[in-house]
Amino acid sequence: MQPQPLRSMNTFADRAPLATHPIAKKLLALMAKKRTNLCLACDVLTKKELLLWADLIGPFICVLKTHIDILEDFTPDVIDELNFFAKKHDFLLFEDRKFADIGQTVSLQYAKGMYRIADWADLINAHIISGPGIIAGLQQEGGSKGRGLLLLAEMSSAGTSARGSYAEKARRMGEAHADFVCGFVSQRRLSDQPGMIHFTPGVKLEKGKDSFGQRYRTIEDVLTAGSDIIIVGRDILQAADPVAAAALYRKKASHFYP
Ligand code: 6AU
Known about the structure:
Mean pLDDT: 96
Order of helices and strands: HHEHEHEHEHEHEEEEHEHH
Helix content: 25-40%
Shape: globular
Strand content: 15-25%
Strand order of the largest sheet: 1-2-3-4-5-6-7-10
Oligomer: single chain
Structural class: alpha/beta
Bound molecules: 6-acetyluridine 5'-phosphate
Radius of gyration: 17 Å
Low-confidence stretches: 1-7
């Protein structure tokens, strides 16, 4: 079946009970209740900044996305504090680890080491390059904890190989593992299953690119292509008034909700 534009899909509230994955259910209900489809890409280097942003932008987002391994002063207590703000403002945590190895290795990277990602991240993502064993390896650690996995189907960067038939392969792999996979990182809607949530990075108020080939599309472009969640980093973090920017993103995006 052809991907549907967002407007012809059910509302987030309609989709929540149709979703079978607990995280998809929770996230869709939260998006409907909080009226936001904004995910903050919080790419910062210190605990203090991460927690400040979580508290400041928390009221406007449904998901806070971390790259926990870029924190220069990581200690496990930052996770407790992050959880505090996730509860306070009602958002989910997505660790953008982009797992890519064989199942056995990713299961260790996910559950062990310094970051113990499986203990706290509601959502993680993985490339499909190594085959479906990566899903099994991650599911072994995250499945019983009720976590969700997003497959990287399409990337925002110029020259990416993650597009076309690769994205189609990711869609098929995700749909075949819907007990653990609850969506995709993609540039558009790929799956018409109501519980599959599409996250799109590379979003700014104005189209453009950065100096490393990141390509930016507008809220309208992304949401009319059927995506569900916009991932925004620098356009909020580097705005003159980040709170106003987050509020604007949330409001502008809501005009494209089904
Ligand atoms: O808005 P930006 O460009 O400041 O941040 C975009 C964020 C970064 C990237 O690591 C991430 O989105 N990202 C991803 C994800 C989320 O997996 C995939 C992709 O194709 N492009 C991309 O930028 O934290």
